[in-house]
Amino acid sequence: MSATLFWTCAALVAWAYAGYPALMYVLQRAFGSDVATGSGVGDDLPMASVVIAAHDEEHRIGARIADVLAQDYPHDRLRIVVVSDGSRDATAHVAAGSGDARVRVIELAGNVGKAAALNAALATIDDGIVVFADARQRFAPGSLRRLVAPFADASVGSVSGELAFEPRAPGATATPLGLYWRMETALRWHEARLGALHGVSGAIHALRRARWVPMPPGTILDDMWIPLQAVLRGERVWIAQGAIAWDVPSATGAEEFRRKLRTLAGNWQLVARLPAVALPWRNPAFFAWFSHKFLRLLVPWALLAMLVASACAATPFWHALFALQLAAYAAAALALRAPAVAARVPLLPTLATFVSLNVAALLSLPACLALDPRGLWKPH
Fold it and tell me: Which CATH architecture has domain 48-278?
């Protein structure tokens, strides 16, 4: 029984992190297709409304607005809507002082969360393409044109840009995303070419205003809710290569862990709030969503079962497997505590990222249950 449990769980882990990505690579090479995008050049472009929900961002919002206004996009077809989500600082004042008539500021009295803030912004936009951005990142030149161009294909319902990371600031200690992030980025591209992409980058994505479906207040993963609405309608979610939002990695391992935990908790919340995603006859991208997103919530439980199964078996082979697992976890813990040292050992940072991600996945369900009724994090 221990052997059956161990190998079943090992197969689940292998499928989630190796088998499924390999299958997507093979399938997209054989059957993948691109969308018929517009050129992204010239001035025959739709109205683009860039929405930025911000909370206590007085030190960044001015530069962020200037960054968007500097995009090479027709002057009369670009506007920015900044939603100050109950900011306690001068976020709204700084945004309103941009001196550009294309910038509109909505100031919310209380901190209602990003989902409700986006709902408030979209209620003031009537047409065109809506581009979602965060206060923290900056767009690479030409990103806005590239992000809008795929909507020339009528089958496209949502478009994601690409999130890229700038060199880490001196003194930061977070484990590099490295190989894991490159594999994740490639997998998303393969899913897009197969018409199975179901998530976007929250820092840079877009949809047609006419397709907007308001989010329940407190929804964590707007970057899943929005594209999944397109998927459920039978539309395609695409990645606009070259539409880049530049970000910086988390300053510390603890900060990166909190970000992972919030995202993974949001996946549980999404199933509860959008149950159609878990129904194969409703979700055209069910196979991709189940293999890519949901199974990763189950992987840490499978890893625990593998550890227990090998510990309970009575032969030297299983004892050796148990010891090997313990050694791998110990190495990952060391890498998380000393990332500079781990960086000198091939694949050790990737192992650390894998273990950290799965610890966050293990805690994601109780973290989701600990949310208050609005979906905002409790202060304790």
Answer: Alpha-Beta Complex (3.90)
